[in-house]
Description:
Layout: E1 7-12, H1 17-28, E2 32-37, H2 40-53, E3 59-63, H3 69-79, E4 83-89
Amino acid sequence: MEEICMKYTVITGASSGIGYEAALAFAARGKHLVIAARREEELQKLKKEVQQINESLEVIIYTGDLSSAEEAHRFYESLKNLEVETFINNAGFGNYDPIAQ
Ligand SMILES: NC(=O)c1ccc[n+]([C@@H]2O[C@H](COP(=O)([O-])OP(=O)(O)OC[C@H]3O[C@@H](n4cnc5c(N)ncnc54)[C@H](OP(=O)(O)O)[C@@H]3O)[C@@H](O)[C@H]2O)c1
């Protein structure tokens, strides 16, 4: 019998901005998601929005600070048994300070 394996799109920095919108865009194309960031509430809000688009989609929330090596390793461990189709490593921040005064 053929095994049905679920494929996931993993998006870090999904709680706002480009990551949030990318999650909605992938959901609109029928993709199961793993969404990661520090702000759990925003990820829960995104999960609800995704499930309004398509209630059959699986959305796994990962909450953690990916600037910590330990957390990044924990995140990797949490993904190990999933089939990752696409990985969008978008978490980050901009520094708008001038580089010279
Ligand atoms: N917008 C632009 O014009 C632009 C231009 C060049 C590059 N970029 C890059 O594109 C990416 C997205 O930009 P954006 O404008 O969408 O920014 P944004 O709205 O500030 O989103 C950044 C995302 O990264 C997450 N994040 C930040 N630090 C994190 C950490 N330590 N651990 C886990 N998650 C973290 C934030 O979630 P939490 O706060 O919930 O953790 C948020 O979901 C960033 O990497 C940014 O540097 C953006």
